[in-house]
Amino acid sequence: MELLSVQNVSKSFKDHSYTVHAVNDVSLDIHQGEMIAIIGPSGSGKTTLLNLMGIVISPDSGEVYVEGQKASGMNDTMRCRMRNQYFGYIVQDFALIEEDTAMQNILVPTLYSKHKKSSSEYRKLIYSMAEKLQVSDKLKSTVKKLSGGERQRIAIIRSMVCDQKIILADEPTGSLDKDNSTIVMKCLRELVDDFKKTVVIVTHDLNVARQCDRTFNLTGGVLTPCNL
Question: Domain ABC transporter: where (predicted)?
Fold first, then answer.
């Protein structure tokens, strides 16, 4: 059974007098332990598709299934529980709280986790991941003192701290230099290969896309497989 499946999903938005068909009849099955890349020009609907996959927004038509569970018909509480249980998110602007420390930001998802660990267990896990991403010395620093690359790596740790099965990454290397991009992609690859996580990446970077198991192009809301 697919871990994540979107079936004939469409989503449109009104832009003044125009209707923008951001996602148009998209179907995609994603299995545990694979890394998927979705590429395409700006405004092609990539972020919208990622938000549909993560049940952040609802489709106009079609269906999203998470480990066989149909997302439609769920109330807001049920959708929030499903998101917290299954999905870790890496967003373009990091979505970190500037005045809080890196550790405090990372711990936010644990407040809502259904399967809670002890504080010491969380901190041991966080320090282990931070060492891999070379930011263990930044955990006590406030976010406003961190560089863009450091912020992105903290955001990645936050996306993994509750051991979610699926990580949805919107341009995870978009603001990083080559060295930091290499560190981030190595970490995501290890999550897939060693821990059987599923990673879906939206990216403009073809070098990032080439490191994924399958690549799809989204243009004009239409998703097609592609080879790089």
Answer: 4-228
Delimit the domains of the chain by residue range: 4-226
Nearest to 49 by CA among 96, 12, 74: 12
* Greater pLDDT, 16 or 51: 51
Q: Which of 47, 64, 59, 70 is nearest to 5 (CA)?
A: 64
* pLDDT tens, position by position, 132-158: 888 999 999 999 999 988 998 899 899
Q: Which of 43, 53, 46, 35 is nearest to 18 (CA)?
A: 43
CA angle 80, 81, 84 (to 5 degrees): 85
- The domain covering 4-226 belongs, at the CATH homologous superfamily level, to P-loop containing nucleotide triphosphate hydrolases (3.40.50.300)
Rounded CA separation 51/25 (Å): 15
